[in-house]
Amino acid sequence: MRGDLTWLDASIKSIRDVTPSVREFRIMPAGGPPGWTPGSHIQVNVVIDGRTDTRFYSLVGDYDPVCYRIAVKREQPSRGGSRYMWSLSPDARIKVTTPLNLFELEFGRPDYLLVAGGIGITPIYSMALTLARQNAPFRMLYAARSREEAAFLPELSAELENRLTFFAENEAERIDLATEIGRLRPGAQVYVCGPMGLLDALRHVWAATGHRPLDLRYETFANSGRYAPEPFWVRIAGRNVEVTVPENKSMLDSLTEAGIEVMFDCRRGECGLCSVDIVEIKGEIDHRDVFFSDHQKKMNNKMCACVSRVVGGGVTADVGYQSS
Amino acid sequence: MAAKKPFPLNAWYAAAWDVEIKRELFPRTVAGKHIVMYRKSDGSVAALEDACWHRLLPLSKGRLDGDEVVCGYHGIAYNSHGRCTFMPSQETINPGAAVRAFPVIERHRFVWVWTGDPALADPAKVPDLHWNKDPAWVGDGKTIHIKCDYRLVLDNLMDLTHETFVHASSIGSRAVAEAPFDVTHSDRTTTVSRWMHNIEPPPLWAAQLGKPGNVDRWQIIRFEVPCTIAIDVGVAPAGTGAPEGDRSQGVNGYVLNTITPETETTCHYHWSFVRNYRTSDQALTTELREGVHSVFHEDELILEAQQKAIEENPSHVFYNLNIDAGAMWVRRLIDKMVAVEEGQTTLRAAE
To answer: pLDDT at position B347, please?
Structure first.
């Protein structure tokens, strides 16, 4: 349960570059890492422009009684989290949380398909190891920009052998989602982690082939959209206020710092509490949440301030404040 | 030094009798986990964490709708895997919304739930109580809720010397407290065997045997981790070969016990008594069940008083006697299971 989340002092045990743009950290929390199950993540305290923020990182590989393992992709442009993580040296002291699992693997299904896109490999990695150890029927599809950019590919290939298929974008290899889903036995589940485009495509094929939405399991930390983040403005309806949201800060944080109160909870585009009404748009809203349905996103009259952004201008928003 | 955890989580625990789980919500706490169980339309049993993901109201306060549980507060619904299927006033469902689903198996007339890491739930590890559903054996049992650490019940069953003193009017006899016994152990079991040769049978057994004269009496107590004890008991006319393996002149029963910890200081003691003689005598089944029930009530009083005394003397460490060998092996096997899982990926993030 989420209330049990506690912050732990930790030190970095070792750092290793698993690809040119993915760095693996072994982190030793004080008192040793609590147990965790595949799909779990931790939060890490990061410092961005002198202020602290938190980032979610999935735990990688098998449980290790000594340390957590996470992998961080250097994002360019970065909202600041990965830049901070990449600045850390071995022996650095940081703060991390106890693990939480919101992407829990369900056991006993007749078939499984694991799909990882890019750095989305992180939660899928431990799921694959667990299913392999149980001799569960599963296959794994892993797509990345190139073979060199695919984190943990050698380890996974050795462990999974022909249950793993890898797709290198630079060699024009693409996952044929419809065929892959068509091969699944009835009652199968799909677990996917990767960019929003991959998730959206999979969701559409899954629905179009008559599968139950609940059997498509995913986790996004809402850190990817259709566009790269860029600065945009937000005007508050009925008030003479304009706030600029820089590329490395969320709309929610920018509004809050400007004294515009918005309710929020999850900060990862799931709960919908930070939804604001959009009165006018210049440019396009890059919806990065999973709270609104496709149809609601197309209407473009609301957005989740915690993760969603605007490209090519800004929006006039109504945050529901009444002065009287 | 922190107290050792009294029970492992990576284990199958008998949560209820199979007949207790119907097409309705049945809450029960097992090894500290609040669980709600129900039977699905296909007859299989589902076991979910008994707390709504949203605001923690016990789901058992809600209702069953088909094979889904609907929370009695805001109508949030969950399927039998614990995945949320409905959230009010929104078009999507939060992808992380779920309650925990526990692996379940029905076997030996019980519903068993696995309270630990589901990846380790191996059906082969359900303790052996097959006599409960074996056509060669008949009988019945009950469940007693006892306000004591479940290990006190295990202690009680691993050493039947107490029969002489607690159950003097039914199965007790001086011979039990005088006869020697053997203790053996394996990785998952401990067995205490006691043979009493050429003794006067206690009243209950004299009536079962229905033959005059002295008997050879046996009690073979087999513990299987973490809390199941099957006791092979019986008498045969003295000298007819029972100790050597020929029980054909005697009567044989099994006292089948599985003691599910509820909390650290309370337990659900499931037991039955089955026999392989007069197997079509339904009146005898009822008589024996009620008879054993009153015998076990005598234990209940002792065990609850013992638990109270333990709580009043928190720093007291038990003295152990030779007769406690079986019970001490039991505790060592349980402690080992707990130690193993503390070093594994078995404890969930939330704990």
So the answer is: 40
The number of distinct structural domains making up chain A is: 3
**Shortest Cα–Cα distance, A225 to chain B (Å):** 17
DSSP 3-state assignment of B65? Answer: strand
* CATH code assigned at A244: 3.10.20.30
Q: Which residues of chain A have pLDDT under 70?
A: 1-4, 77, 221-223, 324
CB contact under 8 A, B349 and A1: no
Q: Who among A103, A133, A293 is closest to B96 (CB)? A: A103
Residues of B in contact with A1 (CB under 8 A): 51, 56, 350
B295-322 pLDDT, tens digit each:
899 999 999 999 999 999 988 888 888 8
Domain membership of residue A269 as a residue range: 232-318
Whole-angstrom distance, CA of residue A284 vs CA of residue A175: 28
In a domain, A323, yes or no: no
The rounded percent of chain B whose pLDDT value lies above 70 is 96
Q: Would you state the torsion angle of the CA atoms of residues B41, B45, B47, B53, taken in this order, to the nearest 10 degrees?
A: -10
If asked whether residues A257 and A280 sit together in one domain, one would say yes
Q: Does one domain contain both A43 and A19?
A: yes
For residue A224, being part of any structural domain is answered with no
Under 8 Å between Cβ of B289 and B313: no
Residue B350 has pLDDT above 50, yes or no: no
Query: For tokens 């199968």, what's the residue?
Result: A188
Residue A1 lies in a domain: no
Residues of B whose CB is below 8 A from A291: 90, 92, 94
pTM of the shown model: 0.85
Nearest CB to A214: which of B79, B103, B119? B79
Q: CA nearest A269 in B: which residue?
A: B94
Residue A48: the pLDDT is 84
Q: Searching chain A, which residue's CA lies closest to the CA of residue B80?
A: A106
User: Across the interface, do B351 and A108 touch by the CB < 8 Å criterion?
Assistant: no
List C-alpha distances in Å: A11 to A32, A52, A71, A86, B316: 11, 17, 16, 15, 40
**Pair (A116, A212) in one structural domain:** yes
Q: Which residues of B touch A96 (CB under 8 A)?
A: none
* The pLDDT value given to residue B319: 85
Q: ipTM for the complex?
A: 0.77
B320 class by beta-carbon count within 10 Å (0-12 exposed, 13-18 middle, 19+ buried): exposed
Q: Which of residues 36-55 of B touch A (CB under 8 A)?
A: 51
Residue A324 lies in a domain: no
